[in-house]
Design a protein that fits this description.
There is one protein chain. Helix content is 25%, strand content 29%. The chain is of the alpha/beta class and 252 residues long. The chain has one domain: Ribonuclease Z/Hydroxyacylglutathione hydrolase-like (Metallo-beta-lactamase, Chain A, 4-Layer Sandwich), CATH 3.60.15. It is globular. The protein starts with a strand and ends with a strand.
Length: 252
């Protein structure tokens, strides 16, 4: 069994209770991080996960609310004595920009720095990303204002979890979420490169997903309550507005 942990659920403007949207997937032996905003180190520690012992990171796109924590995560892992390689999976655009960002910090001069292995994800539908004993991951390009991906994660027991990433409504997410047991979909609002709760509900319905978790949302309680109502008008399955540090058992 593994756990999918919502480390943060907010859109680009967090508050004291809600960090920017990012996730961890762990089975106790292996941990995958999905995105790394400013709060990533503290949120991993709150979730009981060592930030210095991550196995892989997937970055869905290069916006600050999804990548700004990478320099601190890399530096702190080095300061804590990490020696094992860290594998980072992302679009080529993201890898290039992250490497340039780290060069501003002169990370090439940090002595005895652990190996960082970059894996470029092609911008093709349902591209295999990584395979581990407890899960397999695929990615598809989605429709955001910069190159971005969504994810489909399958578990040995047949369960599937999908994550939209930041995106406007698109068929790519319908494909990623086809018959998914859990669909985590952004619900920032109906604006360029983003999705409303009603649109997320429509995508969940068309994909045949069983459960819809809304993330990348506004943080005020009234808006969050309204999001669930909005999505439920078009999706008959369970709708949850995800809270920070929500843990979902998957692959059981």
């Amino acid at each position: 069994m593994a756990e999918w942990i919502v480390l943060g659920s907010a859109h680009a403007v967090p508050d004291a209770q809600h960090a920017n949207t990012h996730f961890a997937l762990t089975d106790g032996e292996r941990t995958l991080l999905v995105d790394a905003p400013c709060e990533v180190v503290s949120r991993l520690r709150q979730a009981g996960i060592s930030p210095w012992h991550l196995d892989e990171i997937i970055l869905t796109h290069f916006h600050p609310d999804h990548t700004a924590g990478m320099p601190m995560l890399l530096m702190d892992s080095w300061l804590q004595g990490r020696t094992a390689p860290l594998h980072i999976y992302a679009l080529e655009d993201v890898i290039d920009r992250l490497q340039r960002l780290m060069s501003l910090y002169r990370w090439e001069n940090w002595p005895d720095f652990f190996p960082v292995v970059f894996h470029a994800i092609p911008r093709e539908a349902m591209t295999p990303v990584l395979e581990a004993p407890a899960w397999r991951v695929w990615a598809s390009p989605v429709e955001h204002m910069v190159p971005a991906i969504g994810l489909r994660i399958a578990f040995p027991n047949g369960e599937v979890l999908a994550y939209s990433g930041d995106t406007g409504p698109c068929e790519a997410v319908v494909g990623l979420a086809r018959h998914a047991d859990y669909l985590f979909h952004e619900a920032t609002g109906a604006m360029g490169g983003h999705t409303s709760a009603a649109q997320a509900g429509d995508i969940a319905a068309r994909a045949g997903a069983k459960r819809l978790y809304l993330v990348h949302t506004a943080t005020d309680p009234a808006t969050r309550t309204a999001l669930a109502t909005e999505a439920s008008k078009v999706f008959d399955g369970e709708v949850v507005v995800a809270d920070d540090l929500l843990r979902v058992s998957v692959g059981a």
